[in-house]
Amino acid sequence: MYKVYGDYRSGNCYKVKLMLHLLGRDYQWVPVDILSGETREPAFLEKNPNGKVPVLELEDGSTLWESNAILNYLAEGTELLPREPRLRTQVLQWQFFEQYSHEPYVAVARFIQLYQGLPEECREEYEMCLNLGHKALRVMEKQLQSTPYLVGDSCTIADIALYAYTHVADEGGFDLSGYPAILAWLRRVASHPRYVGMFD
User: Fold this and answer.
1) Most buried among 47, 48, 111, 128, by the most CB within 10 A?
2) What total number of domains does the chain contain?
3) Cis before 85 (ω within 30)
4) What's the rounded Cα separation, in Å, for the pair 142 and 138?
């Protein structure tokens, strides 16, 4: 059985949780409190020397880290990762977009507002995150006006990667009412029969 070391409030950890549920895989969740510094403890650093969650521990005791790398590993040979090279590359394209153009702003704005209480000294950074986060959301909206999912007609790990922080973007101060295609996509992903919520 897999072990997932993660913080249930983290979107990056939620990606792995949602993925395992969509695949119907058994796993054990090992809670890690990132705010109290548990990821810097020696025992955790043995599992991920980069000191971040999530970490997926395989049955042989080896570990994988970086959320999107874990998604790719779990998706291999499933319907959530296309085999056709161009479609597969488009999945990677959206995963890189998520890590470089979406998560650094949407997730950070959420952290500043939800966990730090939007302190005045973070106001400038927060406003920058809102601005660049909306830029990323507009890119997604344009794609989802053309296709029901980010890569064509079926759900892939590209959707799982971007769903994680988009569906709680309001907790960072993002108003999604101006993104009807994104809202429809969020409902589409959540309609999967094996869907599980972040806080379930």
Assistant:
1) 47
2) 2
3) no
4) 6
Question: Shortest CA distance to 168 belongs to which of 6, 7, 14, 31?
Answer: 14
pTM value > 0.90: yes
Q: What is the DSSP string of 47-115?
A: H-TT--S-EEE-TTS-EEESHHHHHHHHHTTSTTS--SHHHHHHHHHHHHHIIIIIHHHHHHHHIIIII
Question: Are residues 95 and 183 both part of a single domain?
Answer: yes
Angle of helix 180-190 versus helix 123-144 axis, rounded to 10 = 80
Q: Are 158 and 117 members of one domain?
A: yes
CB atoms within 10 A of CB 47: 21
Give the CATH number of the domain where residue 33 resides. 3.40.30.10
Check: CB of residue 2 under 8 Å from CB of residue 73.
Answer: no
pLDDT digits (tens, 9 = 90+) for 134-171: 999 999 999 999 999 999 999 999 999 999 999 999 99
| Residue 2 near residue 43, CB atoms below 8 Å | no
